[in-house]
């Protein structure tokens, strides 16, 4: 049985993005890219909300083709092209995209079925609104939070809409030279 893993950057005060969705405060470098590449190589299923998917779809399919493409662009572009993408949206047309499944209003039932049919992990990249919806339905099994050493003061929270208390077990931590700390937690049932 598969599990849904939330994979997201956050500020030290708990925000996934600024008040207008800005993410220019996120620290990334080759060390973090290498860590993420090793991590995502273990799965072939990505889960997105519509907004994040459209942002990814506008860049990753052709990122490796650019003359100045970085190592990260080449590796992630190849992974993205081959990954099965699952998008929560009531407006996207599934036939317009390759290797993509669009799930509409009955997302909780569809994702529970996807978890049953998947061997391994389903990585939920960013997508705070989708994360909120999945957390409210107890669909997230694990979270990898990349905590950036910055305080935003306000913005889009990582955790919202949780209806009850959840206990989490810390599985691993990783500190990057940039000051970003990755925390891997498992939701306890």
Automatic annotation (TrEMBL):
Q: Name one Pfam family in it.
A: RibD_C
Q: Give the matching Gene3D superfamilies.
A: Dihydrofolate Reductase, subunit A
Q: By its UniProt entry, which InterPro entries does this protein fall under?
A: DHFR-like_dom_sf, RibDG_C, Riboflavin_Biosynth_HTPR
**Chain segments annotated as coiled-coil in the UniProt record:** none
Top-rank taxon of the source lineage equals: Bacteria
Every Bacterial bifunctional deaminase-reductase C-terminal domain range? 3-181
PANTHER family associated with the record: 2,5-DIAMINO-6-RIBOSYLAMINO-4(3H)-PYRIMIDINONE 5'-PHOSPHATE REDUCTASE, DIHYDROFOLATE REDUCTASE FAMILY PROTEIN (AFU_ORTHOLOGUE AFUA_8G06820)
Q: Indicate what this protein is called per its UniProt record.
A: Dihydrofolate reductase family protein
């Amino acid at each position: 049985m598969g599990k849904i893993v939330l994979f997201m950057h956050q500020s030290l005060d708990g925000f996934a993005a600024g008040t207008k969705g800005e993410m220019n405060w996120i620290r990334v470098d080759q060390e973090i890219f290498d860590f993420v590449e090793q991590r995502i190589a273990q799965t072939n299923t990505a889960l997105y909300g519509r907004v994040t998917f459209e942002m990814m779809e506008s860049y990753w399919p052709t990122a490796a083709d650019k003359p100045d493409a970085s190592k990260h662009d080449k590796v992630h572009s190849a992974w993205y092209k081959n990954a099965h993408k699952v998008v929560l949206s009531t407006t996207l047309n599934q036939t317009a995209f390759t290797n993509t499944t669009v799930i509409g209003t009955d997302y909780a039932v569809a994702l529970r079925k996807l978890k049953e049919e998947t061997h391994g992990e389903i990585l939920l990249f960013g997508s705070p609104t989708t994360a909120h919806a999945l957390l409210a339905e107890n669909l997230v099994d694990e979270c990898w939070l990349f905590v950036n050493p910055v305080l935003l003061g306000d913005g889009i929270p990582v955790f919202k809409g949780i209806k009850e208390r959840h206990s989490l077990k810390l599985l691993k931590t990783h500190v990057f030279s940039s000051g970003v700390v990755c925390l891997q937690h498992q939701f306890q049932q």
